[in-house]
Amino acid sequence: MIVISSTLPDIQKILVKVFEKYAPPNSFCVAQSPEAKEATTAACWFPDMPYLQTLPKLQVIHSIAAGVEHLNLNEVSAEQFVCRVLDEHHQKGMFDYLLWGVLYYQRYFDRMLQQQQQQIWKQHRQSYSHHIQIGIMGLGHMGGYVAEHFAAMGYQVSGWSNSVKDLAQVKSYVGTEQLAEFLAQSQILINLMPLTADNTAILSEALFQQLPEQAVLIQVGRGQHLVEQDLLKALDSGHLRGAIVDVFDEEPLAADHPFWQHDKIVVTPHIASHAPMSVVVEQILENDRRIQANLPLCNQVDLTKGY
Ligand code: OXD
To answer: Which terminal CB of the chain, N or C, has fewer other CB atoms within 10 Å?
Structure first.
């Protein structure tokens, strides 16, 4: 039995609808229902963890997405497992979004949109993929996929992560000692890291200063990676050329947030990529079958690493 738990009422409603559509009847229930006492797995997005911990049979806390920071991992009991959804459509969708972002700057669409506002006819020197240095922070399931796909298209790609990665035509930088070298050659910096205590607020003034003049940021990790005021400062000083931001400290973004009106920021509403809901439900059902059959779980999170 799967119990659906989100403290965000709209998301809770959507999750109930998708389970109704893709899961067998009687395989799921909602939080606070009498059936929840039988639940072995919880399907979660910002769940009610204290409530979940009252369910006697619960063994798997399952994120409905790739990220798990919304689960409050420190409230997971030692007997429970945490799993997330990893999926190839999700990877492909992320690559499509990032390719759009890279081309937006590579082919000067940011400048073209501003020129159009002022009816300025000005051509820019065409630049090709092999001219562009892309730096990717986080080379896991998503970052590794994206890095190899950009490299296969002829971009110069490097990545920064906690351990050395062996990815085709991708230069791997590791740990704090190699961060400065990695940043110094990242004209387009893409953040795809999972959020952990170590990298919270890493996208800060000190980091931006180490990027080349006129570098750009594509922020698709988590809002808490970014010090928003520092990004504004780096853009307003002219050091950074622009930023595409898809994830925010507070979502939805407040109506008076300065990012909305900033002419060097493109805001998208946390849509960079999602796994199809049919896949989300299928992976959660599969892990629920596995826990009941005492089989190894898929896409289990290493709680010592937090991803
Ligand atoms: C995820 C997300 O965690 O969509 O997968 O943010």
So the answer is: N
- Averaged in consecutive runs of 10 residues, what is the pLDDT profile of the chain (307 residues)? 97 98 97 97 97 97 96 93 97 98 98 97 96 98 98 98 96 98 98 96 98 98 98 98 98 97 98 97 98 98 93
Is residue 106 within 8 Å of 132, Cβ to Cβ? yes
Is there a catalytic annotation at residue 270?
A: yes
> Residue 281 falls within a domain, yes or no?
yes
- As for ligand 1, residues whose beta carbon falls within 6 Å of it are 65-67, 274
Residues ≥6 apart with Cβ < 8 Å to 220: 94, 97, 98, 190, 191, 192, 246, 247, 272
pTM above 0.90, yes or no: yes
Which pLDDT does position 101 carry in this prediction? 98
Dist. CA 274 → ligand 1 center (Å): 6
> Which helix H or strand E contains 11, and what residues bound it?
helix 9-22
Domain of residue 135, residue span = 89-267
The single residue of 222, 225, 241, 274 carrying the catalytic annotation is 222
What residue's CA is closest to ligand 1, atom 4?
A: 274
From 62, 84, 248, 274, give the residue whose CB has the most ligand 1 atoms within 8 Å, as the site to mutate: 274
